Amino acid sequence: MRITGFRLGLLRIPLRTPFKTAIRTVTAIEDVVLCLETDTGHFGYGEAPPTVAITGDSLESILKALHEVIAPALIGRECADIDGNCRIIQSCAVKNTSAKAAAEIAVYDLAAQLAGLPLYRFLGGGTPELATDLTISVNDTATMLADCEAALQRGFTALKIKVGKSPETDIARLAALHARVNGRARLRIDANQGWTVEQTLQVMQALEAQTGAFELLEQPVPASDIQGLQTIKSAGLLTPLMADESAFNLEQVERLLALKAVDIINIKLMKTAGLSQAIAIAETCYKQGTPCLMGCMLEGAISASAAAHLAVAKAHAITMIDLDGPSLGQFNPIDCNAVFDEAVIRLSDRAGLGITSLTHVTWLD
Ligand SMILES: [Mg+2]
Fold first, then answer.
1. pLDDT digits (tens, 9 = 90+) for 213-266
2. Which residues surround ligand 1, an ion (CB under 5 A)?
3. Taking 90 as the threshold, does the pLDDT of residue 23 lie above it?
4. The one catalytic residue among 100, 165, 233, 268
5. If 321 and its partner were Cys, which of 15, 72, 132, 208 is the partner (CB 3.0–4.6 Å)?
6. How far is the CA of 91 from the centre of ligand 1 (A)?
7. Residue 101: is its pLDDT beyond 90?
8. Taking the model in full, what pTM does it have?
């Protein structure tokens, strides 16, 4: 099986409610879709969302990198040579982690199809069922309480609460959410770089005095403030500290582990530039006894299911799941071998990503 061509398209799925964090507001999933064509009639699919505020990658830059550089470099390549194909994807451009992720997802889809295996079994196997949390956007407390209730009604038992807008308000709303939800769902806090070190310690100490530990605290300070993470980690908070925006690649993760700056690493394919480096990060963290969470951006079911396959295959290292992209959309236009059934993600045994149809994609010429 050889790659003979490619197509690019735009996937658009309106969200149920606007997605709001400390750094952005988004109303729809609007992702680039890559389809690699082969001489056997098989198709390999990849997907990448624009997250200019996080990765620096826009729709335009992802399309341009895939169209002009990455996808052309894969033409003529054997699908069986997964390591060689990943090397080409990673070496043909610097940065552009989202475009590279889409390309790696597509070549892994093809390699697993060629092997006749669902991607999770191609990656080593595992129990094909995961439980994901759901993100609650930052809003006024009443809206966040209502969103939490709605999530609990949908069956979610872990909620990721977006805060980081202002420390005083964040203490009040987190305490209110904890009082309402405690015992019914685990609460994860994501401040999306919105606090300083001092604010983080103030908020968490005040909060923990009222509530006890939360399940985790994600990226309270700016991505570059590794020393800040270290200071927070050594302050003895009850809540484990997780790196997200500070942990894009293996080099950054190794540094965080060496400095003992965090307790948990959030792996996202759009930060790691695809599966190959995500696997390396998961194995490195496992060896050093640091658990990982599998996360995603605002992604549809192509890339979110690739992340789910990876999380199943690396379940020894990836112990928490935040793959709620497809659940935030008003509908799921991707028929693949991952069923996103609210809190539960189940993978079937169709080969590769098992994509049989996708609608709501506008293919570009
Ligand atoms: Mg985050």
1. 999 999 999 999 999 999 999 999 999 999 999 999 999 999 999 999 999 999
2. 190, 218, 244
3. no
4. 268
5. 132
6. 27
7. yes
8. 0.97
Ligand 1 center to 217 CA (angstroms): 10
Res. 24: pLDDT tops 90: no
Question: Distance, CA 322 to ligand 1 centroid (Å)?
Answer: 10
| Cα–Cα distance measured from residue 173 to residue 161, given in angstroms and rounded to the nearest whole number | 10
Q: Is the pLDDT of residue 348 over 90?
A: yes
Rounded to 10 degrees, what is the CA torsion of 230, 231, 235, 240?
A: -40
Mean pLDDT of 62-73: 98
How much is the mean pLDDT over the chain?
A: 97
- Is 20 catalytic? The answer is no
Q: Check if 162 is active-site.
A: yes
Task: Report the separation in Å between the CA atom of 291 and the middle of ligand 1, taken as the mean of its atom positions.
Answer: 16
Q: How far is the CA of 246 from the centre of ligand 1 (A)?
A: 10
Q: pLDDT (tens digit, 9 = 90+) per residue, 156-209? A: 999 999 999 899 999 999 999 999 999 999 999 999 999 999 999 999 999 999
DSSP collapsed to 3 states, the chain: CEEEEEEEEEEEEEEEEEEECCCCEEEEEEEEEEEEEECCCCEEEEEECCECCCCCECHHHHHHHHHHHHHHHHCCCECCCHHHHHHHHHHCCCCCHHHHHHHHHHHHHHHHHHHCCEHHHHCCCCCCEEECCEEECCCCHHHHHHHHHHHHHCCCCEEEEECCCCHHHHHHHHHHHHHHHCCCCEEEEECCCCCCHHHHHHHHHHHHHHHCCCCEEECCCCCCCHHHHHHHHCCCCCCCEEECCCCCCHHHHHHHHHCCCCCEEEECHHHHCCHHHHHHHHHHHHHCCCCEEEECCCCCHHHHHHHHHHHHHCCCCEEEEECCHHHHECCCCEECCEEEECCEEEECCCCECCCCEECCEEECC
Among the listed residues 287, 329, 165, 261, the one whose alpha carbon sits nearest the alpha carbon of residue 244: 261
> Looking at 20, 160, 162, 314, which residue is catalytic?
162
Q: Which residue segments constitute the domains of the chain, with CATH numbers given?
A: 3-116 (3.30.390.10), 122-357 (3.20.20.120)
Tokens coding 26:
């988004």
